[in-house]
Design goal:
By secondary structure, the chain is α+β, with helices and mostly antiparallel strands. Helices cover 27% and strands 22% of the residues. It is elongated and about 85 Å long. The model is unreliable at 266-286 (pLDDT under 50).
């Protein structure tokens, strides 16, 4: 199960914008500075990237503040970074922090949430539910199954002799009810009473549904593409060449990761129906 912190850090890595540290001393009492001796080893021109806003994010408090580019890195030795707006409290020694130069931490989190929708239907949750037939009833409301848009991808009849055995059915479709507008399972012939049908569909993924490894890599690459495309579309950026290189790199990453980690598709209704239209309830139980 992936977390937002894990996704944000991985997205920063995909953007080449990953920098984490731990403060070595207590910051100013008003929350205006963070202190880390490692700042003395920073190349200031790289730390403050062109005209972009370098921000500091504190995962412990979910606070993000923009660093003061004019004041820069100060102290003797150089260990202090001043914020344009103070944190909510004095930053303690030993506090973890992240440096974000290309895009802010909260911008990255927004992009991750957008990418969750954008990776659909390449990544999805395969889901199964059952419905019991009623004699003479042709339509069944399957909205309780929670499938995306109530669309069924596949239908099988469960054996009465062995419930682990299922046989694919073809004479059915998704149909919108005239009465309530709900998408329902419509059977193509009169069913026998009290037969169990296994219905299969997709559910959209929430962040918690992504694995911390494979799925997350697909998600963050897509989030990177989303951010870079939007930034380039604005047309007022001074580092266009850098962003274009990053966009090309992450487009390739997304395609490669998707190829490796994409789940097998559950057949669409139309695909199933093209395979043949057989009688649903005159089959031998297996």
């Amino acid at each position: 199960m992936a977390t937002l912190d894990e996704a944000r850090v991985q997205l920063s890595k995909d953007l080449g914008d990953n920098r984490e540290g731990t403060t070595t001393s207590i910051g100013a009492g008003d929350g205006s500075t963070i202190i880390d001796l490692i700042f003395g080893e920073e190349d200031v021109d790289r730390f403050f990237l062109n005209e972009r806003k370098t921000s500091i994010f504190l995962p412990g408090t979910d606070e993000e503040r923009v660093a003061d580019h004019v004041t820069g890195l100060t102290g003797t030795p150089v260990d202090t970074l001043t914020m344009l707006r103070v944190f909510g409290a004095q930053v303690a020694s030993g506090a973890g922090y992240e440096v974000h130069r290309l895009f802010g931490a909260l911008e990255k989190e927004d992009a991750i949430n957008e990418a969750i929708d954008l990776v659909w239907p390449s990544l999805f949750i395969p889901s199964r539910a059952t419905v019991t037939t009623v004699a003479q009833q042709m339509d069944y409301d399957v909205s309780a199954a929670g499938f995306f848009r109530n669309v069924i991808r596949d239908l099988k009849i469960v054996s009465t002799a062995d419930t682990e055995q299922e046989v694919r059915l073809f004479n059915w479709d998704n149909r919108v009810s005239d009465g309530d507008g709900v998408v329902k399972l419509h059977l193509g012939e009169q069913p026998f009473d009290a037969r169990t049908l296994a219905i299969y569909g997709h559910k959209k993924m929430a962040l918690a549904d992504f694995t911390a490894g494979e799925d997350l890599l697909v998600l963050t690459a897509r989030a990177a593409v989303y951010m870079l495309e939007n930034e380039l579309a604005v047309g007022f950026v001074t580092d266009t060449a850098l962003l274009e290189r990053l966009l090309q790199l992450n487009q390739g990453r997304f395609a490669q990761r998707l190829f490796h980690y994409k789940r097998s598709e559950i057949p669409w209704t139309m695909t199933s129906q093209m395979l043949g239209r057989g009688s649903m309830f005159n089959q031998f139980d297996v």
